């Protein structure tokens, strides 16, 4: 391999390592634990109830605002300690990809929001293999339905996803239609699910456990200002929305210590809504998640790859 090619590969590897492995800030961890331990979402905290995490889950999942700052968005909350699962959406632009979306049985050629100005963005629709989008809202000839726009959440706005002991940023790119018997929730693009759980994910094989936290942020400030919609990889697109996502998380939860996985960050204590849970934050997190996970191996693999590449120069 020529030295120039090796240097390019090293740069790309460093870039991917930084983008794909992000620890969850301590205050967001505390919110996660609080949401799971706080029981059902009812009353004024529930924007709309009666949704299904799976076809047999009983319709007890809610668009919830419990513990969030007033008017700042919502998250999906199931009964008891449940949040939501992660089924796989392969809708949208069908070019590129490694074939894992081919197993999907309900793929459509467009997403709900797509990109309305292809001449501006250089791409006509979202691509499930590249864009980490989340499916939120319920439209169709069933009941109940829910439109996130009614509470200020904008199409294509940033969504924070806590999954597999990591934080990933996505965008609200699609809605749940009426192609199932019940109004369903808990779905994301193949790109986002792969970032969470690795390449074993496919079009018909997602993450079944109801331990995924999807937080949709309300307001114009959540609409990406520097998103690279024309990116040809998940890593490139994710990098383009990460800084703005970090700001949204810091503003909502008061913790700016979002760092790369594998480090030993010194999280700062803040006066956020989640402060009361900070003492038991790490212990609760360990109870709710399997230690490690495939993404926690990324830094080690990156370092090994870099050593090999440097040796080739």
From TrEMBL:
Catalysed conversion reaction: Endohydrolysis of beta-(1->4)-linkages between D-glucosamine residues in a partly acetylated chitosan
Protein's cellular compartments: Secreted
Location (main, coarse): secreted
GO annotation, biological process: polysaccharide catabolic process
Enzyme Commission (EC) number: 3.2.1.132
Tagged with keyword Repeat: no
Keyword hit for Zinc: no
Domain of life of the source: Eukaryota
Region (Disordered) location: 254-291
PANTHER family referenced in this protein's UniProt entry, alphabetically: ENDO-CHITOSANASE (PTHR42061)
Family: Belongs to the glycosyl hydrolase 75 family.
Protein name per the record: Endo-chitosanase
């Amino acid at each position: 391999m020529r030295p120039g090619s090796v240097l390019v590969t090293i740069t790309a590897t460093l870039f991917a390592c930084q983008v794909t492995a992000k620890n969850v800030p301590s205050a967001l961890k505390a919110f996660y634990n609080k949401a799971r331990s706080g029981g059902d979402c009812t009353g004024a905290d529930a924007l709309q109830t009666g949704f299904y995490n799976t076809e047999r889950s009983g319709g007890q999942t809610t668009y919830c605002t419990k513990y969030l700052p007033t008017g700042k968005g919502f998250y999906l909350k199931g009964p008891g300690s449940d949040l939501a699962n992660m089924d796989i959406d392969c809708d949208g632009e069908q070019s590129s990809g490694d074939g894992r979306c081919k197993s999907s049985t309900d793929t459509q050629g467009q997403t709900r929001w797509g990109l309305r100005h292809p001449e501006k963005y250089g791409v006509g629709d979202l691509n499930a293999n590249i864009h980490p989008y989340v499916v939120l809202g319920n439209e169709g000839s069933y009941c109940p339905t829910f439109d996130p726009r009614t509470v200020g959440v904008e199409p294509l706005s940033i969504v924070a996803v806590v999954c597999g002991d990591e934080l990933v940023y996505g965008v609200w790119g699609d809605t749940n239609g009426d192609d199932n018997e019940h109004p369903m929730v808990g779905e994301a693009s193949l790109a986002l699910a792969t970032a969470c759980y690795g390449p074993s994910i496919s079009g018909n094989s997602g993450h079944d456990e109801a331990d995924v936290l999807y937080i949709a942020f309300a307001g114009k400030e959540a609409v990406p200002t520097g998103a690279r919609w024309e990116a040809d990889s998940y890593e490139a697109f994710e990098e383009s929305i990460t800084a703005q996502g970090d700001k949204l998380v810091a503003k909502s939860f008061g913790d700016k210590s979002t760092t790369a996985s594998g480090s030993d960050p010194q999280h700062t204590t803040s006066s956020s809504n989640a402060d009361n849970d900070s003492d038991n934050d790490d212990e609760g997190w360990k109870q709710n998640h399997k230690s490690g996970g495939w993404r926690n191996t990324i830094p080690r693999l990156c370092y090994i790859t870099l050593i090999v590449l440097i040796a080739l120069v």
